[in-house]
Specification:
Rossmann fold; alpha/beta; seven-stranded mixed β-sheet
């Protein structure tokens, strides 16, 4: 019954009061990195894919019941991540019930966050998402899968996911740094075509959540 009510609330949220949130996690990592990225993504989506998301994203903690108020929660940072038992249980229930978590490695997060993802979903593998998946197809086509936005170690960009009954519930983007591309132009001095590419991919993520 609880899962049904949570899912119903998420549907209501999607229909009338679209809000997204940034995850404030423990462990010492800078969860607050890229402060202009979500506001810019929201603005882009509202202007280009007809969303009506509140312009200022909220902040939510992993164990908070408020987590269930948001269809999309974004997580980023450079360092350590630690989820408590209550965090992992709440995050799991949130995603199983219809929520979506996007983790964007801002560089240096990978070795820590993979362990925490496994704590949330011990029986589900984190698998690479193929380029033909719907999240790369509309409203913008990315025939090669996740785009490269910011260079770190010369590795190819990858998008990994956790699926529950064929539904993508967790997206982990690695060696792409979408959030850097969403930030204000002067922060990273990315050319307009790179920022546009990042925002278009972000719009695809939002579109997937709101329409699947």
């Amino acid at each position: 019954m609880r899962f049904f009510l949570v899912f119903y609330f998420l549907i209501i949220n999607l229909s009338f009061a679209q809000e997204i949130a940034l995850l404030k996690y423990n462990g010492g990592g800078d969860w607050y990195a890229n402060p202009t990225s979500l506001p810019n993504l929201i603005k882009y989506c509202n202007q280009n894919i007809n969303t009506k998301i509140k312009t200022k994203p909220s902040t939510v903690e992993p164990s908070s019941p408020d987590l269930f108020s948001y269809p999309f929660v974004h997580m980023t940072g450079h360092g350590n991540v630690v989820f408590s038992d209550s965090d992992t249980k709440n995050l799991r229930n949130y995603m199983v019930s219809g929520g979506f978590l996007h983790i964007d490695d801002n560089y240096g997060m990978d070795e820590f966050v993979r362990k925490e993802i496994k704590k949330i979903f011990p029986n589900n593998d984190l698998i690479e998402i193929p380029a033909n998946h719907a999240i790369f197809q509309k409203p913008n086509t990315f025939s090669g899968g996740i785009p490269k936005i910011h260079e770190h170690d010369g590795k190819r960009p990858q998008a990994f996911g956790v699926f529950i009954e064929s539904r993508l519930v967790l997206l982990y983007t690695y060696e792409t740094d979408l959030g850097d591309g969403w930030e204000d132009p002067e922060v990273h001095n990315n050319p307009i075509e790179v920022r546009t590419k990042a925002l278009k991919m972000g719009a695809n993520i939002i579109n997937y959540i709101f329409n699947n």
